[in-house]
Amino acid sequence: MTVTDTPSTHGATPPPPPPATISYEGEFGRNPLAEAGFGAMCRRLPGVLGHTLRMAWAVDRTAVVLLLVCQLLTGAAAAVVLAFTARALHHVLGTGSVTERLHGALPALVVVAVAAGTGRVGGALAAYADGRITPRLMTEADIALVTAVCRVESAAYGEAGFADRQEAAEVGATRTRFMVQDAQRFLAAAIRMVTAGGVITALHWTMLPLLLLAVLPAGVGAVLSARVDYETHYLTIADRNVRSMMRWWATYSRFGDEVRANGMTGYLVYWYRALSDRIDRRALSAAPRVLRISLATSALGGLFLLGTWGLLAWLAATGRVALPVAATAVVAVQTTLAALGQFVLHGAALFHTSLYLADMRSFLDQAAERAPRRGPATVPERVDEIRLEDVVYRYPGREQPAVDGVSLTLRRGEILAVVGENGSGKSTLVKLITGILLADRGRVLWDGIDLAGADPDAVWKRTALVPQNYARWPLRARENVTLGQPRTFDDAPVWQAVDAVGLRETIEGLPKQLDTLLAKEWWGGAELSGGQWQRLACARALYRRTPLLVLDEPTSQMDPRGEHRILLEIKRIAAERMTIVITHQLQNTRLADRIVVLRNGRVAEQGTYEELAAAGGLFAELLSLSEDR
Ligand SMILES: Nc1ncnc2c1ncn2[C@@H]1O[C@H](COP(=O)(O)OP(=O)(O)OP(=O)(O)O)[C@@H](O)[C@H]1O
């Protein structure tokens, strides 16, 4: 047999590469539970219960009170049912005629019926209270997450593991659904266990410890299995995160053309399956461990249960307990066994849920730590100058700074063009000027106020930005213009902004004009073309009328008429503000008062269009390349 490097079958190609393996080092590389012992895990329960109670209390106090009262009621009802069943059995199995015995048992049976009914009503009301609390609890958890993520310093997104902690927190937020239910069932089982345990101890003191031994292994098994499940979850967070992102990109209708016309479907589906298989393999590799735990704990529990029944038989056979008492004991054993079983299983379920909720809480703490803490300084409505002093910024995990010692001054009324090759630091520079990122070194001063000490909301009230990747908000056309600055109910300024970008005809042609929902996916929605969306993004920035206007590649998708119109508008309104335009269309930099050319994060040259075009430097080189067609 010979082995060749060349494919032997007609046109066979090597298999496509499998999805990259993602693993993290450092803080997030280790499962926080990896070293936690069984006792430590169980000690988390009171904390989880307390937290659940506090959260539930905050959303609906009446429902919480109702829930607790109902739990007590159902627990007490269960005890009454058991105690009076014992009494009834005492009569039924006693001496006398059948009628006498039944007659004697009747009052106890009535009490049993009433108590059982009360227990059922209590159970139904508890479920109702849970139904009132849980949806709001989920909403609160969800909103807390969204708010936390929207508020963190932008730099946090770049930190290793941040997105995965967020994904873990999202799972935690969805698990909130089980939180009240688990806590409620656990409490109910605890109350039933205490009451039934009391009854059974009264029959013979050895019964309860034996029963406890019979169910404890199942509880230990459930907790250990929950731990294995969480370990698998932890190991696959990164993969699931990437998979859900990929799923969105692959199935989102806006990218459908690219997927189809580039023949990506096959590979995407292959990729999706390969990653899913990898996730499944991790889950399946845990299955034997779960089976071993389950078999061992079931066997142990079964042995103890056998012992309990044996003891009961021995007590009855040797006359140590009377027959009616033994019969009651059978009922009591069953009830206590069920209560104990539920107690440990719901305890384990609560513990399981708590693992995920802990992820959510730790992410919220992490996000809170990364919330801007810059200082109280505010920025006046009018800003006359922005000065950068030797500003340096390096993205986390990158060796080279993206902006490396930039100093420049921008004055009111001035239009600054920033140019440079891909990756030269233009967008990063703009993020530093607008305070989205804070400089690692050096200062960005707005009329002498250092952005490192200024309240970011106060700064962002004064900025308008058309980023390179702007969002196409699935909102009405009006909100797509006013988002971030809903000023009045008056549409006139909205139309002004729409006119400024030459979009009036388009908007008037929409089914509901400004009220049209710009989301093709939804019924009643409409879709715009790429350039029209870009015009809308520009309209949004112009509508804000802020002292700083930043446009990053604002006309890359526009036709010449649209581009011309926007550039004229920028010039028209330039006197009242500072304007920064990033562009690769070097002809467009003619409108700027000054051009800054970046290379590797540094200012390579600056000057007017004419000066730079004649200087023979990088700008002149790029200009000649753009003209060499
Ligand atoms: N979020 C980020 N995390 C890490 N590195 C980043 C990030 N954003 C940009 N960079 C890196 O910083 C450098 C500067 O990027 P920047 O986006 O500022 O360049 P640019 O001049 O705007 O490029 P382009 O012309 O392609 O838009 C690049 O090397 C880029 O890889």
Question: Could you explain the architecture of this structure?
Answer:
This protein has helices spanning 38-42, 44-59, 61-92, 98-151, 162-203, 207-251, 256-261, 265-317, 323-369, 426-433, 456-460, 477-482, 492-500, 504-508, 530-544, 560-573, 609-615, 618-627; strands at residues 385-393, 403-411, 415-420, 441-446, 449-450, 463-466, 548-552, 578-582, 594-599, 602-607. It is an alpha/beta fold and 629 residues long. It has two domains: 43-369, ABC transporter type 1, transmembrane domain (ABC transporter transmembrane region fold, Up-down Bundle); 385-627, 3-Layer(aba) Sandwich (Rossmann fold). Strands 6-7-8-3-9-10 form a six-stranded mixed β-sheet, with helices on both faces. Strands 2-1-4-5 form a four-stranded antiparallel β-sheet, with helices on one face. The two termini are 55 Å apart. 36% of the residues are buried. Mean pLDDT is 84; it is low at 1-9. The site of adenosine-5'-triphosphate has 13 residues, from helix 10. Adenosine-5'-triphosphate (ATP) is lined by residues 158, 395, 398, 402, 420, 422-428, 468.
